[in-house]
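Backbone-to-sequence.
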């Protein structure tokens, strides 16, 4: 799977992350305005990414038996499926949220239209089998 990184994908990724974390919070710890907070986080991250590279950055995600890798520009992240505790879906994106034990970049967005070789349904089925902490379901946002 390969796609161009965009602000829209980064924003959807942050929105999914905050909605998921908010679902685990209670009372005064709930975020009142998730969209605004996510937009601010995405805007800050996008500015950081633009400082790193002014060129369009390609995101390449490769799935293996026990893990998957995400290569964005010259940065490679490896995730084990056991780290993923939530799979969120928007109209255009699948967002995978890792548990809090992961120190850096605990979430990743996958652009749905970039699935190659298999169908989106096959990818979802594969992720649900592999990401056992996700509870066998995908949260629709």
């Amino acid at each position: 799977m390969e796609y161009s990184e965009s602000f829209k994908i980064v924003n959807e990724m942050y929105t999914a992350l905050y909605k998921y974390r908010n679902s685990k919070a209670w009372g005064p710890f709930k975020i009142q305005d998730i969209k605004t907070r996510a937009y601010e986080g995405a805007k800050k991250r996008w500015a950081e990414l633009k400082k790193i590279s002014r060129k369009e950055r390609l995101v390449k995600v490769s799935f293996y038996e026990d893990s998957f890798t995400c290569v964005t520009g010259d940065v490679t992240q490896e995730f084990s499926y056991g780290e993923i505790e939530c799979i969120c879906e928007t109209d255009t994106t699948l967002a995978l949220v890792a548990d809090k034990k992961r120190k850096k970049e605990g979430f990743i967005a996958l652009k749905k239209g970039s699935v190659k070789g298999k169908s989106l349904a096959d990818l979802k089925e594969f992720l649900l089998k592999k990401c056992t902490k996700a509870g066998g379901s995908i949260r629709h946002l």
